Amino acid sequence: MLKTITLGTCVSVQGTFVRALPNGKVEVRVGQQLFTGSPVSQGAAA
């Protein structure tokens, strides 16, 4: 499952969901790298 996370105010990453962390952040994998950030909330479909 793909998830989008934000790493800062302007940087977002989309990758394969790895795990949810106890502090509310999410870990995703892009290639061989793991990124941890805040999940982007899903918006309503247009």
Model description:
The chain is an all-beta fold. The protein has one domain (about 1-40). The chain has no helices and 4 strands. It has strands at about 1-5, 10-20, 25-30, 35-40. Strands 1-2-3-4 form a 4-stranded antiparallel β-barrel. Strand 1 (about 1-5) and strand 2 (about 10-20) form a beta hairpin. The chain is globular. The protein starts with a strand and ends in a 7-residue tail after the last strand. The mean pLDDT is about 90.
End-to-end span in angstroms?
21 Å
Backbone structural class: mainly beta
Following the backbone from N to C, one meets helices and strands in this order, namely EEEE
Strand order, largest beta sheet? 1-2-3-4
Query: What form results from the Cα inertia axes?
Result: globular
How large is the share of residues in beta strands? over 45%
Average residue pLDDT: 91
Taking Cα atoms only, what radius of gyration do you get, to the nearest Å?
11 Å
Sheet of most strands: 4 strands, antiparallel, barrel
Number of DSSP-assigned strands: 4
Q: How many DSSP helices?
A: 0
Compute the number of structural domains: 1
Q: What are the low-pLDDT stretches, counting only 5+ consecutive residues below 50?
A: none
The share of residues in helices is: under 10%
How is this structure best summarized?
With 46 residues, this protein is mainly beta. Helices cover 0% and strands 57% of the residues.
